[in-house]
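Format notes (please read before filing issues)

Several people have asked whether sequences and structure tokens are stored in separate files. They are not. Every record keeps both together, in the order shown below: the sequence lines, then the token lines. Line labels are part of the format and must not be stripped during preprocessing.
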Amino acid sequence: MNKIAHANPSQAGFFANDVFHDLILSGKDNKGKTWIAIVSIVDLCRAVKSLPDQNIQNQTI
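Then the structure lines:
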């Protein structure tokens, strides 16, 4: 999730075929060094689905 939040949108892309559905992300860290990450959308969805449900009450946004 951190890579998704900090990716440079102008340098993001995706790849999809019958087997793979990936986000291709890149950005720069706080020292200016370029990073790249390939995130499987299927694996990301599985990870989010496995998180326990939380009851959120009386929370001010």
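For reference, the curators noted about this record: The helical segments are 2-6, 41-50. The chain has one domain: 2-45.
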